[in-house]
Design a protein that fits this description.
Number of strands: 9
Helix content: 40-55%
Distance between the termini: 34 Å
Strand order of the largest sheet: 1-9-8-4-5-6-7
Length: 217
């Protein structure tokens, strides 16, 4: 649809331009349309896309500040903050995919969402949840359950993201796999590739150093 300004310019052109100029422009416009259609068909046949390639991992760059409660939690639960034990990337199989989905659903159905303020009277406390918790507790609980099932801690990274059009951070668990970086989220029981979510990913734990976080692009 034309904007108001574009519509006025088009109308003015037809009112004042000589007929032969209008004809020339129409011919050129038709040629341009045929060219655009040809490109569109070629892209359709070649599956042209500018989206993130399927299975592409997140890109990290530079240092990021960790959430303040991260450090106090890691002093109490160092094994759940470890990012250097075992394989850095899990080779996915159907059994692995089913197990990942089952753990995500298990924690989401077992734990009820409740803010730290309501639970402990403070703004930000990280813990392994039993029956209640907030988003980072869900992520920690899922890492705990997966480690009990033999998944390597190095492939599971606590991650902070922002929902679209929101400035409020949300913590999820990223699992690095041969099929790409997968997201386990407290808001859905469906495990998704990071590029298929509606989040803007901000930072996650570093696989090189469990005490640091990295920015995400």
């Amino acid at each position: 649809m034309l904007s108001c300004r574009q519509g006025r310019r088009s109308l003015l052109f037809h009112l004042v331009a000589p007929f032969d100029l209008q004809l020339t422009v129409r011919k050129r416009g038709a040629a341009m349309i045929r060219s655009f259609l040809a490109v569109g068909v070629a892209c359709t046949l070649a599956s042209c896309t500018t989206a993130t390639p399927t299975g592409a991992p997140m890109k990290t760059y530079g240092y990021a500040f960790a959430p303040p409660a991260f450090y106090s939690f890691c002093k109490k639960q160092p094994r759940l903050c470890d990012t250097q034990s075992g394989d850095a990337v899990v080779m996915m199989t159907k059994a692995k995919a089913d197990q990942l989905q089952a753990v995500n659903h298990l924690v989401n159905s077992r734990v009820r969402m409740r803010s730290d303020l309501a639970t402990s009277g403070t703004d930000d406390v990280w813990r392994v949840p039993s029956d209640v918790g907030d988003c980072e507790d869900f992520a920690i609980g899922k890492k705990d359950e997966l480690m009990k099932r033999g998944w390597p801690s190095s492939a599971m990274l606590l991650t902070v993201a922002y929902p679209r059009f929101s400035k409020e951070g949300h913590t999820v668990l990223t699992v690095r796999t041969s099929e790409g970086d997968l997201i386990l989220d407290s808001l859905t029981s469906t495990v998704m590739k990071w590029s298929d979510t509606n989040y803007r990913f901000f930072a996650r734990q570093s696989q090189d150093n469990p005490d640091t976080w990295e920015r995400l692009s």
